[in-house]
Write a structure and sequence with these properties.
The complex is a heterodimer of chains A (378) and B (765). With 378 residues, chain A is α+β, with helices and mostly antiparallel strands. Chain A has twelve helices and twelve strands. In chain A, a hairpin with a 3-residue loop joins β11 and β12. Chain B is globular.
């Protein structure tokens, strides 16, 4: 079985939906930009690529028409390169990475672009035309569609306080603001040209956020609850892309990979506590990689909600010092379809930048799933 | 006449930024500069918060910058308004810089309230003076109707006419051209009135509460009265303006009779009790912020606010003349203040304005008086006032004496209002071209039909106007009867119909007292007939063989909103408060409002997004009873179609609505009945998710959920609806009817209705 390697990763700046600097940019243009960036700096002949696989949670409207194919054409990739859009909601672009790595393993191609896109400005969460099955009861429908409520459920089940959530959120903001200030995010950001000028910085980060300030926000999902806009990830616009190749391909083309895909898994859980999804998925992926959580040097776990990260870390016994070093989605933003590839790409970059052998990228998924991918430094 | 498309405002204080916001409301691109760019930017943010913009998105029309770096942004401005500190040297220095960047033919104006135009342009080049005038706005510029203009002898006539027209049509202002005299018109009279009111109250040792009550409602003056107004404007600012007027006016002017800063005001300014802006003025909140405290005019100390205690006010029941004749403290106070203020207006009008109508317009628009001073004098009796002044020893102004001899300042001549001029001649009351008011139509003609609760007027050119005259313009049976008769009558001899009037509101909707009476006497099902009648009648409006145009102004709630939704077109005043507020009283819109909102969203962009999108959009507007704060917001909420018109000047609304009706009448074809795609049970599930999400978040009461559930059924078509089988509009109105009657059977709905009738406020049960 051929091994798959992450060679490179780029993303657009992540900016707030509706008000952010990228809110006017079409999602297919945004995705094309990150594809061009990754392909361009690889020096590869783009005709050597097999496929472009993009995750997108709500692939309709401007994100419709098989946006992976659209973005591939807009990016100017040769007609011979394929394009496929995949949907596993928040896990979509990690799924794209898994599919690319899986294809390599089964000999169905050697070089792939795997990434994701979500303009939460252009297509609202749950899409334009949600038509859930009327036979579902209120609780199941809410578990599927009201993510904030699932976070509240987790806070209740795990007894995680408002203060713990706010403390976590403030730390995420601090880490992201420091990384932004030190230029540590520049390595992953591909600037985007807009009519109003070039956008090269993340727009969601709120440096100087304090626990006290976060404490003044109202719970938005449940009366008397603890989940607020401050300890949740914001609605975000953004795109991400990774270049994934086989070992042999890397050698032939003189590519210097960042990391090898060492294990992956998906798992299901109860929809009403979807935020706990990473636990089982991670356990399975670690087992398949033949390691334990203690072996992990770098952990990128999506911060859909602070409470959900805290619960997962408790169950997985994760060392906070290794978690989301440059901040997470609470600060950076969570463009649903684009997040998974960011986590994988970031973990691979960190293994290279900071050293270490094993990395983990994992996230929870609405509807009750988790997805995880283990990397080994190349 | 020149066109004003881009404007610059220099000075981002409260006035400058408010003017910039209102220019943006008028659709202009605006540049707002201050010494620091950050000041201008934060002033725009403040305007967004304080409601200076009619739609928050209009803030994007304002580009901010600094005077030092960004003057070139003004180089393509058609109008540049200076609104900086009231210092001649600062203003003139700025004019030199404006002159170096502005384009030829652009107009420059100052928002000064105290410096004469002659001083502002003194020594400046001819070309600048020719393009220069004073544009004096009132605070807040969005809502205060008055715009005073002052042109100098060197000002181009065309520049004045351009700004007069722009101020009237684009900014929606009552434009009054003033002479270049200190304080112009409104502030000259207003400040005298305020000085008199403050000093007389202090002299009488009156309670602030009594003074404010005496000087407001009986005279049609806003309920802030005098001390409330001082707190609103700022006590230090009032003092500054009065000082400036004292300096500019001759010693013989009665303004000089009152000190600029009576001891109490000097003390309050010293203690930083400046009014609302400093958190304490004549009134402040108590330490626990639960009650109010009021300054005692004798001791200067705060004491708890009292109920108004006045025999004079109780006995005279809002009759101005009776109050002034009452010998109680409030009566003596009202007489002293108003007699002097009205005499002052009559005394100075020959000097400051070209007629009493200009002065009355200015005081209505700038101080919110229901009647200007001359209209008030006519109400009180000019002869009566002369006698009162003689008794008081106040010299009787010549102009007032002439009016007393003529029987008043205003008269009706040949079907139009005329006014007396200081030279004793008369002329027609000035009215801008193309303005239609029913008041003027009534002077010139008889109603086509008069049903008491409503009247039908002939606006000329084949357009009729249906005027509702019930309390709050609500729809009871008499109004519905009249509307039905109107639809028949208009077909005989008219081409189109406007529904609207001069009233401050369009309609507060159905008469909810009738809901209650019907349910209590005959049960909820008995209300079905009324629902059917509304459906039938509003459908008749919609499919009439002539165009019906709704002239929407002020407030249009519930049934009033639903009538507008059925009109072929709406012409709305920019300040429109419209909403389907039925859920607030525990029902759903029952006269086709649900159906029309579904249709609007299905016609608009929502339709492209699948069968449930229009229902989701309509649910988002109706369930929380969303209400617009302007016509622009009403357009965004879906009440107005993109093709519906918005009129900035309330006085032009009927004329614009008539023009719209005339334009539609040419080869008019009524709309074809639509078919609706209803999303059915799957769509209901999506809407229910919204409802449950809101409920879980604690934003809904128990009965909100019941009403919301009923609305879900109406908007998605019930259990049998299927998106692949479109239905006619009657299918939705049948669901409205069923939901309405079912909700009327809910005790919680009746509690809401009773509470609304008793308190005017919604009950959250």
């Amino acid at each position: 079985m051929a091994h798959a390697f992450i060679v490179d990763y780029a993303r657009s700046p992540f900016t707030p939906a509706y008000k952010g600097a990228l809110s006017g940019v079409r999602p297919d243009d945004l995705a094309a930009g990150v594809i061009s960036a990754v392909v361009g700096r690889s020096g590869l002949d783009p005709a050597t690529l097999e496929d472009v696989i993009l995750g997108c949670a709500f692939a309709e409207g401007e994100q419709g028409l098989n946006i992976a194919r659209c973005a591939s054409l807009i990016a100017g990739l040769p007609l011979s390169v394929g394009g496929s859009t995949v949907n596993r909601w928040c896990g979509s672009s990690m799924q794209a990475v898994q599919m690319a790595a899986g294809a390599i393993a089964m000999g169905a191609g050697e070089a792939f672009i795997a990434g994701g896109i979500e303009s939460m400005t252009k297509v609202p969460m749950m899409g334009f035309n949600p038509l859930p099955n009327p036979r579902w009861d209120d609780a199941l429908r809410a578990a599927f569609m009201n993510m904030g409520l699932t976070a509240e459920n987790l806070a209740d089940q795990y007894g995680i306080s408002r203060e713990a959530q706010d403390t976590y959120a403030a730390a995420s903001q601090d880490k992201a603001a420091a990384a932004q200030a030190d230029g540590r995010l520049a390595a992953e950001i591909a600037p985007v040209a807009t009519p109003a000028g070039t956008v090269d910085k993340d727009g969601c980060v709120r440096g100087g956020t304090t626990v006290d300030k976060l404490g003044t926000l109202k719970a938005v999902f449940k009366a008397g609850g603890s989940v607020t806009a401050g300890n949740s990830s914001p609605l975000t616009d953004g795109a991400s892309a990774t270049l994934i190749v086989s070992e042999d391909f890397a050698r032939r083309h003189n590519l210097a990979p960042l990391a090898r895909v060492a294990g992956y898994a998906v798992s299901g859980c109860a929809p009403e506590i979807m935020g706990i999804g990473p636990v089982e998925a991670t356990r399975k992926a670690l087992a398949r990689a033949g390691i334990t959580a203690a072996d992990l040097d770098v952990i990128e776990m999506n911060e859909a909600f602070a409470v959900q990260v805290l619960a997962c870390c408790r169950d997985l016994d994760i060392d906070p010092a290794r978690l989301n070093r440059d901040g997470g989605a609470i600060a950076l933003g969570h463009p649903l379809g684009a997040t998974g590839a960011r986590l994988v790409g970031k973990a691979a970059q960190l293994l290279k930048r900071d050293g270490g052998r094993y990395g983990l990228a994992t996230q929870c998924i609405g509807g009750g799933q988790g997805i995880a991918l283990v990397l080994e430094a190349a | 006449m020149g066109e004003i498309r881009k404007a610059g405002v220099i000075g981002a204080g409260v006035m400058g930024s408010g003017i910039a916001a209102h220019l943006a409301n008028a659709g202009l691109h605006v540049v707002l500069l201050d010494v620091e760019a950050a000041t201008a930017a934060s002033a725009v943010a403040k305007q967004v918060k304080s409601g200076g913009f009619m739609d928050a998105a209009f803030a994007e029309r304002v580009v901010t910058g600094s005077v030092s770096d960004d003057m070139l942004l003004l180089s393509d401005a058609d109008l540049i308004i200076e609104a900086v500190a009231e210092r001649l040297d600062v203003k003139q220095g700025l004019y030199a810089r404006i002159e170096s960047v502005r384009k030829p033919g652009s107009i420059v104006s100052s928002n000064t309230s105290t410096i004469p135009l002659s001083a502002l342009v003194d020594g400046l080049p001819e070309g600048f003076a020719a393009d220069f005038l004073v544009t004096h706005f009132f605070n807040p510029p969005r809502t205060m109707p008055l715009l005073e203009l002052v042109a100098g002898p060197r000002t181009r006539r065309e520049a004045l006419e351009t700004i007069r027209d722009f101020g009237d049509r684009d900014l929606g202002k009552s434009v009054v051209v003033c002479r270049d005299t200190p304080g112009f018109i409104a502030n000259r009279i207003g400040n005298y009135w305020m000085a008199a009111a403050v000093n007389e109250a202090i002299a009488l040792g009156l309670d602030v509460e009594v003074a404010d009550a005496a000087i407001s409602k009986p005279f049609g003056i806003p309920k802030t009265g005098i001390f409330g107004l001082m707190d609103l404007v700022g006590i230090d600012l009032m003092s500054m303006v009065l000082r400036s007027l004292h300096g500019a006016l001759p010693p013989s002017d009665p303004m000089q009779d009152y000190p600029v800063e009576p001891a109490l005001l000097a003390r309050m300014i010293g203690e930083k009790r400046l009014g609302r802006k400093s958190g304490a003025g004549f009134v402040r909140l108590s330490a626990d912020r639960k009650s109010r405290e009021v300054t005692d005019l004798v001791t200067g100390e705060y004491r708890p606010q009292k109920k108004v205690d006045s025999d004079a006010l109780d006995a005279t029941k809002g009759d101005a003349r009776a109050l002034m004749e009452h010998d109680g403290a409030a009566g003596r106070y009202a007489a002293a203040v108003m007699e002097k203020a009205l005499a002052y207006a009559a005394r100075i009008t020959p000097e400051i304005a070209d007629g009493p109508d200009a002065v009355d317009t200015a005081m209505r628009g700038g101080y919110g008086w229901a009647k200007g001073p001359f209209e008030l004098i006519d109400q009180l009796g000019a002869g009566w006032l002369v006698a009162r002044l003689e008794k008081r020893g106040v010299p009787v102004p010549d102009f007032l004496a002439k009016a007393a001899a003529a029987g008043g300042f205003y008269a009706i001549e040949n079907g139009a209002r005329s006014c007396l001029l200081p030279d004793g001649t008369r002329r027609k009351v000035a009215q801008a071209d193309g303005v239609i008011t029913l008041a003027a139509v009534q002077l010139a003609s008889k109603a086509v039909e008069d049903w008491g609760a409503a009247r039908l007027w002939d606006l000329g050119d084949g357009i009729a106007c249906f005027e509702i005259r019930s309390k709050m313009n609500t729809f009871g049976a008499p109004v519905l009867d009249a509307l039905e008769a109107t639809l028949a009558r208009v077909q005989q001899g008219f081409k189109g119909l406007v529904i609207g009037s001069d009233a401050p509101l369009f309609s507060a909707g159905a008469d909810i007292r009738v809901f209650l009476e019907t349910v209590e006497t005959s049960g909820p099902a008995a209300f079905g007939a009324s629902i059917d009648r509304g459906h039938r009648l509003f459908k008749a409006v919609k499919y009439a063989p002539f165009p019906v145009v709704g002239a929407a102004a002020g407030l249009a709630f519930g049934g009033g909103c639903e009538l507008l939704l059925h009109c072929r077109a709406i012409q709305a005043h920019a300040e429109l408060t419209i909403g389907l507020v039925e859920p607030r009283i525990g029902v759903v819109p029952g006269w086709g409002g649900c159906k029309e909102m579904l249709l609007r969203f299905a016609e608009g962009h929502a339709s492209a997004k699948g069968p449930v999108a229009p229902a989701l959009a309509a649910f988002g507007v109706i369930a929380p009873g969303k209400v617009s704060t302007s016509a622009f917001e009403a357009r965004r909420l879906g009440f107005l179609r993109p093709t519906d018109g918005i009129t900035m000047n309330r006085a032009r609304l009927l004329a614009d609505a008539k023009a719209k009706a005339l334009a539609l009448a040419e080869g008019y074809v009524p709309p074809a009945p639509p078919s609706l795609t209803l999303s059915g049970p799957s769509g209901a599930s999506a809407l229910r998710n919204v409802l449950e999400t809101e409920a879980t978040a604690g934003r809904l009461t128990a009965h909100d959920r019941v009403v919301g559930e009923a609305l879900v059924t109406v908007l998605t078509g019930g259990p049998d609806a299927d998106p692949v089988r479109p239905v006619g509009e009657d299918a939705v109105t049948a669901l409205e009817r069923a939901a309405f009657i079912a909700l009327l059977g809910e005790p919680a709905t009746l509690e809401r209705i009773r509470h609304m009738l008793a308190t005017g406020k919604p009950l959250r049960n």
